[in-house]
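Note to self: keep these together.
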Amino acid sequence: MKTALALAILFASVLSAADITGTWKGTAETQAGSVERTFVFKVDGTKLTGETTSDRFGKSTINDGKIDGDNLSFTITINFNGNEAKANYKGKVSGDTIKLTVDVLDQTIEYTVKRVS
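Structure:
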């Protein structure tokens, strides 16, 4: 009986995950100026994968991605002046908009990204 309940909860959480598969784009204001970033998300159940491209930092692979309902999280590795840095993203989906908060290089950056396709 406990196994059936656990499976029901698991299926309910998978069904309630937002499908953000596709391309999203936005701009963030940083201490060093504006940074434009494009995200290509792929969702498989609660697993989030894909890649992202920035006009300043190039292309990065999305790692450790998770989506739970309208909440998502993932990490990327960027190259900044020849040094690698980990960027930790958390966000909330609302229709065709995602509000993202990024912790990277001792600062927090906020993006609002919109679905492109």
